[in-house]
Design a protein that fits this description.
The structure is a single chain. With 376 residues, the protein is of the alpha/beta class. It has an eight-stranded parallel barrel, surrounded by seven helices. Strands 6-7 form a two-stranded antiparallel sheet. The radius of gyration is 21 Å and the shape is globular.
């Protein structure tokens, strides 16, 4: 069971891209030292609030500075760029990472990016994602000539191939299969969870889902695994949650309620984005809930795991029992403005050094006891 972080990253107005990147670097170095296994970073082209347009470029700077972290794109929105470009950049990063890379893909979630790239039709974006990843994987597995005639992209190299000069050959990752593929899944009962199981991809379950919504992803994913003849296991499933650990339950509650809390900012930002996109249903506690009744409090409380180390440990154990056997927890990274840096540094340190090891021990002991009974 791995522990990681998932960063949009989200920052309030007034932060420059350079300041955000400096902060994210410091966060990565902290995580590398306190027991985290994975570091996932988002991609956005048209929001200074989510200020990283190239997660691969940025994470390349972190590779020589870290020892323990595996890096993941969270996610590269495949409709936004030509598959030959993405495939070549991913192959390069995979070679640089030497096994410390997971390729997260998606259709994109930022309305301004959809407008920028003229991709506002949801069904088209999904078909583009599937076409793009198929083309990339074909490139990685074969040599020239290349010839692709898809619905959205038509390209190839058939005339300018000169093996003696190594010309006309596309870059390859470390293995012909390419790095492990993961796909974002953000709605209850999503067909993408089924698709992930069918294709052997790892689902990345959104932090915005309630536990009931998360549970539908295990149902769909396990169905897809079974239908494709794969082992039904949650080992490759990553669930993203907002987690706040403090020395005591009372202190965690105080930090969560604080007017300048970055967790509150996170949910307020998400609430406003979804309202403008006409998708506020994602934060409602029931389908008939009025838009005006969706507040930061109603959005936050069912989705945040908070408390002392012992309380958070118990809540994470209950969560996994409730939603399904996810193999990996990714915590949503928060902005470090004001007091939030000290608070999240403490939270991440407690989570990495105390909470998650206790969660791992719990399930290892329980699974070991179950296996012993089954063997009798």
């Amino acid at each position: 069971m791995n522990l990681g972080i998932f960063l949009m990253p989200l920052s309030p107005p007034g932060r420059t891209m350079g300041q955000v990147m400096d902060e994210v670097t410091r966060k990565a170095l902290l995580l590398d030292s306190v027991g985290f296994d994975e570091f996932w970073l988002g991609e956005h082209f048209s929001a200074t609030s989510e200020a990283i347009p190239s997660p691969l470029m940025f994470m390349a700077s972190l590779l020589p500075q870290t020892r323990n972290l595996t890096f993941g794109t969270g996610v590269i929105s495949l409709p936004n760029r030509h598959p030959a470009v993405v495939g070549a950049e991913v192959a390069q990063f995979d070679q640089m990472a030497k096994g410390r890379f997971r390729f997260g893909i998606g259709t994109g979630s930022l309305p301004s990016d959809w407008e920028l790239f003229q991709l506002e039709d949801e069904a088209s974006r999904r078909r583009m994602m599937l076409e793009s990843i198929s083309m990339m994987q074909a490139i990685w597995k074969q040599g020239p000539p290349y010839e692709f005639d898809g619905e959205f992209w038509k390209f190839g190299i058939t005339r300018n191939i000169h093996p003696e000069l190594q010309m006309g050959i596309m870059p390859k990752p470390t293995t012909p299969e390419g790095p492990p593929v993961h796909v974002s899944v953000s709605t209850p009962n999503s067909s993408t969870a089924v698709l992930a199981g069918e294709r052997g991809w790892g689902p990345l379950t959104s932090s915005l889902l309630t536990p009931a919504g998360v549970a539908t992803h295990w149902i769909g994913y396990s169905k897809g695994l079974a239908s494709s003849g794969r082992e039904v296991s949650g080992e490759n499933w990553r669930v993203v949650r907002v987690v706040l650990v403090a020395p005591s339950d009372a202190e965690a509650e105080r930090r969560l309620a604080h007017a300048q809390s970055s967790v509150r900012f996170y949910f307020d930002y998400i609430r406003q984005v979804l309202a403008r996109a006409g998708k506020l249903i994602a934060l409602k506690t029931r389908p008939d809930m009025a838009d005006a009744d969706v507040t930061v409090e109603t959005a936050m409380m069912p989705r945040v795991i908070f408390g002392s180390p012992a309380t958070v440990r118990d809540k994470l154990i209950v969560l996994r029992d409730e939603v399904g056997p996810f193999g990996n927890l990714l915590v949503s990274g928060m902005d470090w403005s004001g007091q939030n840096e000290d608070w999240e540094r403490e939270s991440l340190t407690l989570l990495g050094r105390e909470v998650w090891p206790a969660v791992r021990r719990h399930f290892a002991q329980r699974d070991g006891a179950a296996a012993a009974v089954a063997a009798q």
